[in-house]
Design brief:
Layout: E1 8-14, H1 22-33, E2 37-43, H2 49-58, E3 63-66, E4 80-81, H3 83-88, E5 93-97, E6 100-104, H4 107-117, E7 126-130, H5 134-145, E8 150-155, H6 158-172, E9 177-181, E10 200-204, H7 222-225, E11 228-233, H8 242-249, E12 253-255, H9 258-273, H10 279-293
Parallel strand pairs: 1-2, 1-3, 4-6, 7-8, 7-10, 8-9, 10-11, 11-12
Antiparallel strand pairs: 3-5, 5-6
Helix pairs in contact: 1-9, 1-10, 4-5, 4-9, 5-6, 9-10
Length: 294
Amino acid sequence: MSISARGSVCGLLAYPIGHSLSPDMHNYFSEKLGLDEVYIPLQTAPEDLKKALEGTYAMKFLGMNVTIPHKQAVIAYLAELDESAEMVGAVNTLVRTEGGFRGYNTDMYGLTRSIKESGVKLSGCEAVLIGAGGAAAAAAAMMVKEGAKSLFILNRTPQKARALAERVNSLAGKPFAVGLPFDGLAAIPGYGTEAGNGRYLVIQSTNRGMSPNTEDAAIEDRAFYKLAHTAVEIIFNPGITRFMKLSKAAGAVTIGGLKMLLYQGVRAYELWNNLIIPEDIIEGAYKLMEEKLR
């Protein structure tokens, strides 16, 4: 594709950039929709985040995606927050406005759509969340919004698990979530018993198992995986993570992270351009990303 001197620019702020499929996806959207727009990766160290935002705004960037490690730190430099970002407490999409960038969270939309598309009912479900970072915050907020029954949050640092649980309980307006350390699995009802088999929707939101460390998993305990009826992974590379392998071996249905990446990107692109992407173009972008991962 080509872009003119009057074309729009969007980008990805991350550190390190690593292997991202976002440029492939967004540039595919622009090509198929016939828009004069390009999407570029922008490796940005944490200490340079403010300067990067000031620079991209001055250069008239239409919008940006924000990922690890900037999803929460970026909030301090934004002109305003959308309801989705306020609910999650983390931002992954920036949209240019008159006074600065407005922050959104499209991770929650992407995760919700990918799970529902797989036929999983979120209303009334019991869930377990691995991790307590920005992606975990989106998953936890989704559970509240969709009317889940309960949520156990597991994290290597128990203070972070408890802090996210407190935030979620405040959001829900009732006791809803419990924060636990990885060695506190016995506190989850059904753990280690036949009664717990297939009881929970389990979401893995850490970066453990991401390429190139594909043999890693945040939790190795085989008894834990028996709790899951459905196991959702947010990592998209590799397409099948160790978490997914352990879950499938225990009898769970597994959902990979590529659809979440796709749908959060769809929503971001629609926000930047004030349009709706046709389903055939969305499907084409998904096939392109699958090919890139191979």
